[in-house]
Amino acid sequence: MSRHIGVVQFPGTNCEQDSIDTIKNLGGQAEILWHGSDTVGSVEAIVIPGGFAHGDYLRCGAIARFSPIMTAISRFANSGGVVLGICNGFQVLTETGLLPGALQKNVGLKFLCQMESLIVDSTSSAIGKSFKSGEQLQIPINHFEGNYVCSPEVMCELEANGQIFLRYESNPNGSIGSIAGISNKEGNIVGMMPHPERATSVLLGSMDGNRILSALFEGNVKNNS
């Protein structure tokens, strides 16, 4: 069982401690992976958390993609290691090319911070395998650029390969296909706009986020970085 999780920190990241606290509360170990590092060390899975990496200048994640840690994460992911990108982390993964498509401004050009109902679409990814298709989850969103877009060809591939992990029940941001989260073809890289680390207690309105992050413990143990 994978227990040692690395949580990436860029200048502007603001959800790393929430992610670390949740991982520790679930019985795992967690450590910060500094954006300037060229190795992921001995971690067994990686979280790229939310925030505003490098102030979201140019585009969200457009500068973060050039950080040394992303080269190390690419090696880790290409060797089969499990990577979860949350919100800004999802944006970074698309900018890096580890996930297809892109995130653009929400329809209506409004910042959204609210609880959303999500539907599990595919269970083929490292995270999705902990769920049943059609399950409903309550997890909040907190973004301005969470509108997922891709070409018709990519959308067909996502559908055909079972790469759509989560869909919004009521599409809040205009994402194509109501997409809230996807994976790569191999299923070891997952990106999602909703924040599971903010749905870990009844006091926060939902505990469904615990199931997302605890799924990291079940991922493949890889470390070639």
Can you offer a commentary on this structure?
- The chain is of the alpha/beta class and 225 residues long.
- It has a single domain, classed as Class I glutamine amidotransferase (GATase) domain (Rossmann fold), CATH 3.40.50.
- The protein has helices spanning 16-25, 68-78, 88-96, 152-160, 208-214; strands at 4-9, 29-34, 45-48, 82-86, 102-104, 112-120, 136-143, 147-149, 164-168, 179-183, 189-192.
- The strands form two sheets. It has a nine-stranded mixed sheet with strand order 2-1-3-4-11-10-9-6-7, sandwiched between helices.
- Helix 1 (16-25) links the parallel strand 1 (4-9) and strand 2.
- Residues 220-225 have low confidence and may be disordered.
Describe how the helices and strands are arranged.
Elements (H helix, E strand, L loop, with lengths): L3 E6 L6 H10 L3 E6 L10 E4 L19 H11 L3 E5 L1 H9 L5 E3 L7 E9 L15 E8 L3 E3 L2 H9 L3 E5 L10 E5 L5 E4 L15 H7 L11
Parallel strand pairs: 1-2, 1-3, 3-4, 4-11
Antiparallel strand pairs: 5-8, 6-7, 6-9, 9-10, 10-11
Q: Features of this protein?
A:
alpha/beta; 20% helix; single chain; two-stranded antiparallel ribbon; Rossmann fold
Q: Give the end-to-end Cα distance, rounded to a whole number of Å.
A: 20 Å
Please describe the biggest sheet, giving its number of strands, its sense, and whether it closes into a barrel: 9 strands, mixed
Mean pLDDT: 94
Q: Please tell me the total number of domains.
A: 1
For the record, the CATH class is Alpha Beta
Order of helices and strands: EHEEHEHEEEEHEEEH
Q: Beta-strand level of the residues, as a percent range?
A: 25-35%
Radius of gyration: 15 Å
The poorly predicted ranges are: 220-225
The CATH architecture name reads 3-Layer(aba) Sandwich
> Could you give me the name of the CATH homologous superfamily?
Class I glutamine amidotransferase (GATase) domain
Please count the beta strands (DSSP E, at least 2 residues each).
11
Q: Give the number of helices.
A: 5
